[in-house]
Amino acid sequence: MPQARIADASDPEAIMEAARIIRKGGLVAFPTETVYGLGAAAANEAAVARIFEAKRRPRIDPLIVHVHDIESARRYGTFPDAALPVMERFWPGPLTLVAGKKNLIPDIVTAGLDTVAIRIPAHPAALALIRTAGIAIAAPSANPFGYVSPTEAAHVAAQLGDAVDLILDGGSSTIGVESTILSLEASGPVILRAGGTPVEDLQSVLGWTDVHIGSVLRPSVPGQMKRHYSTLTPLEIIEIPGRRDAAPRMEKQGERIGLLTLSLMEDASCYTAVEILSPAGDLREAAAGLFRALRRLDTLALDRIVARPVSEKGLGLAIMDRLRRCAAGD
Ligand code: TXA
Ligand code: MG
After folding, report:
1. What three-state secondary structure class fits 205?
2. Which of 321, 284, 317 is nearest to 33 (CA)?
3. In this predicted model, what pLDDT tens digit does every residue of 221-256 receive, in sequence order?
4. Is 77 in the pocket of ligand 1 (CB under 6 A)?
5. Based on C-alpha coordinates, what's the Rg of the chain?
6. Of all protein residues, whose CA lies closest to atom 20 belonging to ligand 1?
7. Distance of alpha carbon 298 from alpha carbon 85, whole angstroms
């Protein structure tokens, strides 16, 4: 299969071409501020089916619908009154809202649920693409199902390059973890996936004290499967046992171990490779580079990766969520 062309996302001609491909039922990988998406016309059942095939994604895992303004969001979903201040404050941005599904959205997008997840991405190229296409774009992260999400065009080209019609290159995703998914239940707000919008921001901006985290209420949403966002190399999260004896025990002679850490707090001489996410300990910077670091470690034929836990404040909650899913056994 031929490799997809990579076009510069800041080129208006490339946006026009991408929009034409979407309107004709094709697949376009495009940058967002969170991760790269694999987009197709949300109302086109056959086009959406191609997304599932390209990713080898089970049909039971629903997609997020991307729009460029609040009015369009309302064309596809029914939102509770409490959603308006959230949309006005956090869109465009790394927040997805769960709404009642309207008929324009085919069942394949929502995996048969009567709700639909909708967001307005903040990346200018994503907004330009959606606006130019003039229709909503369904887009999961542009990675094979279960693997680490892409934060660069090259990540998409390497794994899905033969399955998409065009890749728009808009540089590295600045947030680096997927959107926060929020459901506004009658009983109160529930975070279904920790992500690029910190819970603290939702709480402080909206004055909420009672945001529930985790999908206890929705254990059936498949994107919340335990093992996900995973490297092929086994990964474990291990607290530094004590500065001086921080090195992990070698299970066999010459074991190749990679270290993933926020900042370097230990003697790293026993590691084959080290990825430092933020020397200054900044969780935003760490989130932005997390998936790139995981991918790099995964190319080094390591026996395993040791990840040091980070504080679960701000973007740290999303970072720990991704690391835990990566570490979870099949
Ligand atoms: O940042 C993001 O959200 C990225 C970019 C491309 O926008 N997209 C993304 O999509 O992460 P994906 O497909 O990798 O994750 C979508 C997840 C599903 O796995 C599911 O957990 C949740 O969104 N979801 C989708 N529809 C839902 C619904 N109706 N109710 C609850 N959760 C839903
Ligand atoms: Mg994904």
Report:
1. helix
2. 284
3. 555 667 778 999 999 999 987 655 556 666 677 899
4. no
5. 20
6. 223
7. 41
Tokens of 209: 């004290």
Its sign, for the CA torsion 87, 93, 94, 98, is positive
Q: Tell me the backbone φ, ψ of residue 240, rounded to 5 degrees.
A: -65, 120
The residues of the chain that CATH labels 3.90.870.10 are 6-177
pLDDT digits (tens, 9 = 90+) for 130-174: 999 999 999 999 999 999 999 999 999 999 989 999 999 999 999
Determine the distance from the C-alpha atom of residue 68 to the mean position of all C-alpha atoms in its chain, rounded to a whole number. Answer: 18
Predicted confidence (pLDDT) at residue 19 exceeds the cutoff of 70: yes
| Superfamily (CATH) of domain 235-327 | Threonylcarbamoyl-AMP synthase, C-terminal domain (3.40.50.11030)
Task: Find the mean pLDDT for residues 11-18.
Answer: 98
pLDDT, tens digit, 9 for 90 and up, residues 268-313: 999 999 999 999 999 999 999 999 999 999 999 999 999 999 999 9
Pick the CATH number of 6-177 from 1.10.357.20, 2.130.10.10, 3.90.870.10, 3.40.50.720: 3.90.870.10
> For 118, how many CA atoms within 13 A lie in the half-sphere containing its CB?
28
| Most ligand 1 atoms within 8 A of CB, residue of 63, 79, 179 to mutate | 63
> Does any ligand 1 atom lie closer than 6 A to the CB of residue 143?
no
CATH 3.40.50.11030 residue ranges for the chain: 235-327
- Mutate which of 221, 225, 227 for ligand 1 pocket (most atoms within 8 A of beta carbon): 221
Which of 27, 64, 152, when mutated, tests ligand 1's pocket best, judged by the most ligand atoms within 8 Å of its CB? Answer: 64
Q: Which atom of ligand 1 is nearest to the CA of 175?
A: 1
